[in-house]
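Note to self: the last two entries modelled the partners one at a time, which told us nothing about the interface. This time every component goes in together.
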Amino acid sequence: MSNVLIYAEHAHGKLPKATAVAVTAAKKLSAVAGGQAILAVLGAGVGEVAQAAATLGADKVVVVDNPLLGYHLADITAAALAATAEATGSDTIVFAATSKGRDIAPRLAAMLDGSIASDIVEVNADGTLVRPMWAGSVLATVELTAAKKIVSVRSTAFDAASGPAAPIENLSVTIAAPAKAMKFISLEETKSDRPVLTEAARVVAGGRGLKSAEGFKTVLEPLCDALGAAMGASRAAVDAGYVPNDLQVGQTGKVVAPTLYIAVGISGAIQHLAGMKDSKVIVAINKDAEAPVFQVADFGLVADLFQAVPELTTKIKALAN
Amino acid sequence: MKILVTVKRVPDPESSIKVSPDGSGIVESGLKWVVNPFDEIAIEEALRIKEAQGGVEVVVVSVGVGESQEQLRTGLAMGADRAILVKADKPDTCAVAKILAKIVEKEQPTLVLLGKQAIDDDSNEVGQMLAHMLGWPQATFISKLTFSADKNSVEAVREVDGGTETIGFALPAIITADLRLNEPRYASLPGIMKARKKPMEEIDAASLGADLTPRIRIKKLAPPPPRSAGRKVESVDELISALQTEAKVM
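The predicted structure of the combined assembly is written out below.
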């Protein structure tokens, strides 16, 4: 029997949905291992976060409050998690497959000389895991063979867990501070009143068809606002400098699965489809009738986006009134 | 200064990947092989550092099959100075990191640049693992790298969820490249000619004394469930009506 530890990501006193999703996968893993799913809240002054973490469906919350953990850089956080896993009898450590999770998890795997599976989408009853490869063209069933197992979880692949308030335990662990430390300098957060891309129920994404940053601003943004949708983009649009990289949907960007995904001026390269094909309803608007995006779209409109999108925006606004 | 850059041989990102009938691998016949696109960005960054600072040697290293020579030649044609091919049979990410740690011990680079992920296994793990094995700082998913005046430390801008993060540290260090770091150059014809004469060392992974025991076993590969195409609508009005009455998402 061994426990499963989940790394609780948090910012501004809040936990992202991706952590609640990781708890669901962790509970499947703990059912296989016959132990508890324990959520680890690391930080400096994280009492409020711990309270929120307690309702995410884990069996227990452990809090490591330490001034060294004010900002979660990979080196110190991996060291703190290794100590926390040891103290809680956890042989499996679970992360959300976010930029933070994917930064820290492999470092921890090396630290524990363990096995790692990144970005998993399923936990089987026999403990094997399923993860996409080749931009989602292949699903691999994998077995982790080392004693310590590290897993990161795709945030669209499981439902978010929740539950009655779990007990909170303060844990004091000795953290081996790295000799050649990384230093935090600054964080530039993208300011937006729109929903978070990876959590939004509706996503409107633009591609190179929008032709410029101006195109995103004047054509796509009004549709996002009319629908209350998050804005996304193809790699081609990011590459061309129209929008920042944190809007990128696809194999090398974010994976989303909203109720409604509208792809505007996106041809539908394999690497983009990898990030959105699990959306419930997909709409594609593109002037090229042969664009591959139409092969995954529930509803395809072959049209000039510069006419169709403003018309769609106006008509959706009229419906709302 | 010496910079080590990793180069992985992967199928062209535009390839259509099919699982072999027995589920043990992918169908490789007819595939075109290229340098992992993120590794190309890493090579470009190393070359820019070399051009800006002078006195820099850029060494490209690949771990894998013998044919990876082709991808190393591409790196040399872009402007790298020499290449190392470590022959290994389907190593997992952990084995690759352990092999690279041995190469780093031997070569003593100041900087190791890697692509943030390989577009075949999509693991995004090797750089972070290598950083721990060497006890070095890491900056993953970077879009900008700046050296201090004395060249002994760097600041890196990282692409993170919800924005960008800047971190800094003393060298040596591990850096993994994200999309916006730079636009990789094409190899020029003279570059390709010169590359033929540049040194390429071949090493057998087993000779390095690293523990190559697999930590992950692939039991089966399968295609994902297909998503069936829907239908075309003729107008914006028909689209809105379909979303309201058929899909019921509006």
